[in-house]
Amino acid sequence: MKATLKEVAKLAGVSTATVSNVINETKYVSDEVKKQVFAAMKELSYVPNDVAKSLRVKESRLIGLMISDITNPFFSLVVRGIEDTLAKEGYNVLLCNTDSNIDKEKEYLKVLLGKRIDGLIVSSSGDTEQFFREMADIDVPLVFLNRCPAPLISDVVTTDNVKGAYLATEHLIGHGYRRIGIITGPLCISTGRDRLKGFKQAMNEYGLEVDNKLIKEGLFNVQSGYSLIKDFMSESVKPEAVFISNNFMTLGAYHYFHDAGISVPGDLAVVGFDDPDWARIANPPLTAIRQPDYEQGERVAQLIMQRIKTGNQSEPQEIYLNPSLIARKSCGC
What we know:
6-stranded parallel β-sheet, 434 Repressor (Amino-terminal Domain), Rossmann fold, single chain, 333 residues, alpha/beta
């Protein structure tokens, strides 16, 4: 049977009000009395009611986290960084996987706000100014992860996607490839737009034509990568090299290479965005843009804690973390 507050007070030799003050930190209690109360709680295995406590102290110690696809290895490591950092502050995470579905995202938002969360972290599937403004109207501290709202309405932590795509394209150009294609993510999302922007910047700065026939927009999933690389390889004039904007899309492309007997980099050179574990053991090993995923999670968690502690008063910050290129054999290295 679960111990009660009265039983803790009796064992500690204090009043129930004193026990409540120790638990909720609502009034001064001497260190000696605190030790008595905590010892009694331990002996009785007493666990305070967090919901009741949150109503009294106006905090739940819960952070809502909405992720577009938790099966993506990138997000798995970001979430680990978030959880590890928030745990040190005594906060727990309520994780929601939205599948990049805006209706699902809106429904989860209602659920999380109903849980009296102290802050919200979002990798949003929203693509309209109206939706982001609706997000800005919620009465809890808010930080965006990976995908940037337009206009900026709250803090954002993301990889410098323009730079990452530039590095990937520049690397292919450095190998002597001139007819270079790109498979982008959805251009309604900042990561899709920024990676296309970086690709175009590199092509333009090296005096190479950006052929619209070599730009294919897809979704950040395996099926999209498979079908779009198939389209490229079915054309009469094929690209010499392709930059693929997401690890799932690159995995789909590799499935197609296997099915169709395509030689990489003999028939087609490839650089991917993201560096999942399978990239090192793929045939051939994948040259990839590595994101600082765990660090991104840490920085997001630090920002949400800063907003909680300062009363959500500071101006929005944009933090762009540096990607790096990991050279392997898929590009001809």
